[in-house]
Amino acid sequence: MRARRTPEPYLWLLFSGGGVVAALLLPVLVLIFGVLAPLGVIEPPPAARVRALLDPLLVRLALAAVVGLCLFHAAHRIRFTVEEMTRGGRLDVVLAPLCYGAALTGTVIAVLVLF
Amino acid sequence: MITLQVSRYRPGQDAEPVFQDYEVPLRSDWAVLDGLAHIKDHLDGTLSFRWSCRMGICGSCGMTVNGEPRLTCGTFLTDYGEGPIRVEPLRGFPVIRDLVVDIDDVLAKLAHVKPWLIREGEELPLTAEYTQTPAQLEAYKQYSMCINCMLCYSACPVYALEPDFLGPAAIALAQRYNLDSRDQGDRFDLLATDEGVWGCTFVGECTSACPKHVDPAEAIQRYKLTAALTSVRNLLPWGRS
To answer: Which of A99, B110, B114, B173 gets the highest tally of CB atoms within 10 A of its CB?
Structure first.
């Protein structure tokens, strides 16, 4: 018997990839741009420099990947946390498209902003 | 003395499980199982529970002790201070009587994952010897420590919600053979399903509950990676096996 086709392996790859990215890169980005710079602990980089930093295609692609993977990671987590807390596997039909749809929308917005 | 609040269910007599209190001696060397044996021997011979080895090897005496899945032979009365200690059957399983639960479902799942060494093109009986390096032994040894006590199933919220879920011990058992250098079997079709590894949401309670440090949660996550990469490879036109 062949295993039934299921989208779970691909969703899980996005989730686990997002987990790695969220654990390794997100804290640094949040610390620099969300905490230290606004508090004035470090000199906030001038807008022109940030824009120059984003100029290479590779940087923008990497940033889009970081945002997208983190969003899919969150979507996966929220989907299963809500389902387990509401004991509602039946909710999955609505919840899964909603969660991953939101992640996809966020990724598209990130791409639109970056490019 | 310490109070044991023991869940009783006598089919034909109780409509649903009820608690009955027993006073047992509080001795520093007594486990909860010794308390139950004291009840059976001296206070109430009608109490039913499973046990065998009294030393954490047979996996028979798993019960819910103060809400946690525990081996009662390794859970000491003195760990609970003044008490009382509440002893219930393993959660997530149908109760047959008192503290005895129906484990047929898990036994069937353990057998379902082909828990034996699969060799290609060899006639039975197998006569060749296959030596292993210490590193090859180490690759699966941890997963071979499982005693089938089913505490992990009792702790797993997914199993409670989805009775079809293959579950922690069965997947760890499959990994015990997948990671064995002597095994040539392919368990992808058994494991890479919605009821298999994809049913797991990595709550991790199975690993917390495991008295033998098997770490079923790790086994499942590791197989998820294997299964995901195999699924991607199967999608590629040149990768189909």
So the answer is: B173
> For residue A95, which residues of chain B lie inside 8 Å, CB to CB?
none
Instruction: Enumerate residues 6+ apart whose C-beta is below 8 A from B5.
Output: B19, B20, B21, B84, B85, B86, B87
Round to whole Å and give the CA distance between B211 and B59.
9
Domain parsing of chain B, residue ranges? 2-101, 104-235
Model pLDDT for residues B125-170, shown as the tens digit of each residue: 777 788 999 999 999 999 999 999 999 999 999 999 889 999 999 9
Cα A61 versus chain centre, distance = 13
Say if strands B85-88 and B18-24 run parallel, antiparallel, or are unpaired. Answer: unpaired
User: How far is residue A105's CA from residue A46's CA, in Å, rounded to a whole number?
Assistant: 29
- The CATH code of domain B104-235 reads 1.10.1060.10
Joined tokens for residue B123? 């006639």
- What's the mean pLDDT when you consider all of chain A? 89
Q: Name the fold adopted by A9-114.
A: 3 helical TM bundles of succinate and fumarate reductases (1.20.1300)
Helix axes B168-178, B134-141, angle to 10 degrees: 170
Residue B2: both structure tokens together: 């310490």
- Name the residue among B158, B193, B224 with its Cβ closest to that of A12: B224
Say what the pLDDT of residue B240 is. 63
The closest alpha carbon to B201, from B140, B135, B156, belongs to B156
3-state secondary structure of B208: helix
Which among A12, A72, A76, A77 is the top mutation candidate for probing chain B, defined by the most B β-carbons within 10 Å of its own β-carbon?
Answer: A12
